[in-house]
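Comment thread on ticket #2218

A.B. wrote:
> Attaching the input chain for the structure job we discussed in standup.
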Amino acid sequence: MAVTIKDVAQRAGVSHPTVSRALRGDSSVTLETTTRIQQIARELGYIPSAAARSLKTNRTRVVGVLVHRVSDPFYSRVIDGIQDTLHPNAYSIFLASTNNDRTRQAEIIRAMTERRVDGLILCSMFITPEYFREIQARGASVILLHNRAAKITPFTLYHNDRYGARQMTRHLLELGHTRIAFLGNTRAGRESAERLKGFKQELDAAGMTPNPRYIVHAAFGQPPAAAEPIQALLALAEPPTALVCFNDSLAIGALQVLHNAGKRVPQDWSVTGFDNITIAEFMNPPLTTFDQPKYSLGAQAANLLLRLMESPGTDDSTWNIPSLRGEILVRGSTAPPPH
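C.D. wrote:
> Ran it. Output below, let me know if you need it in another format.
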């Protein structure tokens, strides 16, 4: 049978409330008594009940974190940043993935709020103003990560995807490429759209008109999805010599398709990724990519949520919420075009 706070009080010869105050470090209990009670609690193996504590404080010290896919190497670093920030503040996380299923997303959020999480960090989720208000009505503070949703809530943190795509495109232009393709991700919504806009803007700035036949989209963001759109580009009478991919995973898939087609990277094609997942550096050739500050995105989202949970109900849009920027990492997968 589990040791209760009453067992500690009986052994210490004090009242139940005195034990509660001593274990909280309340200054109304003398240091000598607090030390003795804490020692007895350890000897008995007393473990405070989180459920009982939450009833008294109306806080569970748990934050729900929702991502598309837990196995995604991008989100693994984001989660590290969230967890490393929340843990010193005595918060645990309740982690779940949606697999891009909106019905599943709604069910998970409902389950999290029913378990009275104090806050939610929703990463790249589909959110409407009505749905956001519904979530808020359940009592949890909410931070949106990777959702350009300032019209829904000011508490939205995201990476500047358009800037990143412009940097990748500029790098290829500076190498001398003029036939540059873009491989997007149909399921990525805003993120893919923003990166495509950045791609087009950089071409426009260089006085070039984007070739619509060079703009293709994968059905999802993992390597196998690159096969069909890359094969379509290879089949063109005048195929591109360079490729800007939505993310590293699609770029890795593109490398395989090009290799199987007898194309050399970077001699025949230059290929770029986005995100700088761990494996990108170890590809053959190593992948030129855009290094998103993944850990910082998670840490800043957690810090923002901590502030918001201390001021529940605030709608202060004057908070300084930055749009984060990463940096280009030039590796072996890009070179001047073939002559």
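A.B. wrote:
> Thanks. Noting for the ticket: The chain has three domains: 5-48, 61-158+295-325, 161-292.
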